[in-house]
Amino acid sequence: MGLLSGKVAIVTGGGTGLGRAIARRFVEEDARVVVCGRRVEKLQETVEAVGGPPENVLALPCDVTDQAQILGLVKTAAGKLGGIDVLVNNAGVMRFGELGKADEHTYELMMRTNVWAPWRFSVAVVPHMKQRGGGSIVTISSIAGLKAMSGAGLYCTSKAAVQVISQTLALEHAADHIRVNVICPALVEDTELAVPIVGEEGMEEFYGKLRPLHPLGRNGRPDDIADAALFFACEESRWITGTVLPVDGGRMLTSNRPKI
Ligand SMILES: NC(=O)c1ccc[n+]([C@@H]2O[C@H](COP(=O)([O-])OP(=O)(O)OC[C@H]3O[C@@H](n4cnc5c(N)ncnc54)[C@H](OP(=O)(O)O)[C@@H]3O)[C@@H](O)[C@H]2O)c1
After folding, report:
1. Mind listing the pLDDT tens digit for each residue in 57-67?
2. Architecture of domain 8-245
3. What is the pLDDT of residues 22-48, one digit of tens each?
């Protein structure tokens, strides 16, 4: 019997990167998983990558910046799978640029996707988790939410804000046995996150520049984050809530100062 046997999980942004790895890991542990995102073809790729019986993973398109779509997805997921036990707030976007040059559109995009959506999604699943006697919400933030980074101010702000929202939810729903925890990855390869910034063709160079910043000697892999998400989702973390956990190859131990 797997660690998530009998559990139903929603993974936002499940069509690529970390979300796909989390969905795969959860299904390996016998969860039934709903993956959502805007691009249906990516969700379908996840269904194929996860494998196993088709009833174990359900692809439901959803734009997480749209309240009606969030509510519709939660209702459909609970109706089709009989309840909701776990939510992984994973969908996110990243843009770079100095604060002095940032525009309103970029601000709105990052705050709506990285902060507003996890808040609204979490609130929407709470009644379903209460019906099951509890649940686990896992938010994928970033080390950018722990440390100001020149040129990434709005992204850092959004990731810091979502940590505090998650911790507040942890306090407000502890009595409902709903735990809320946050994972802060450093750079993880094999995702699309930096494509809008450096382009497909710039990804290898981007990864190469960041590799030396991680004391454990490599960038992250999506499975590194999926294992941490599994821990927070399952009963092994039953007495842990409101935690903000860097999963970062030691990067938070280092300073921003270049080696001299
Ligand atoms: N990769 C890293 O180094 C890293 C480090 C720290 C934190 N993170 C965080 O990890 C999370 C996952 O990112 P990733 O690295 O796996 O990058 P990714 O491959 O770009 O995944 C982001 C996912 O979010 C979905 N998404 C974006 N906007 C959405 C919207 N409006 N509605 C629904 N889905 C939306 C995307 O799907 P669609 O475009 O199809 O909607 C995509 O599947 C993000 O929150 C990111 O900030 C990543």
Report:
1. 999 999 999 99
2. 3-Layer(aba) Sandwich (3.40)
3. 999 999 999 999 999 999 999 999 999
pLDDT digits (tens, 9 = 90+) for 93-102: 999 999 999 9
Ligand 1 neighbours, Cβ below 6 Å, are: 12-13, 15-19, 37-39, 42, 62-65, 90-94, 113, 140, 142, 185, 187-188, 191-193
Q: Which of 74, 93, 96, 115 has most ligand 1 atoms within 8 Å of its beta carbon, as the pocket-test mutant? A: 93
Q: Which two tokens stand for residue 148?
A: 């100001």
pLDDT, residue 53, reads 81
C-alpha–C-alpha distance, residues 83 and 30, integer Å? 15
What predicted TM-score, i.e. pTM, was given to this entire model? 0.97
Euclidean distance between CA atoms 159 and 9, whole angstroms: 22
Centroid of ligand 1 to alpha carbon of 260 (angstroms) = 35
Domain ranges of the chain: 8-245
CB contact burial 39-50 (16+ within 10 A = b; e otherwise): eeebbeebbeeb
Q: State yes or no: is 207 an active-site residue.
A: no
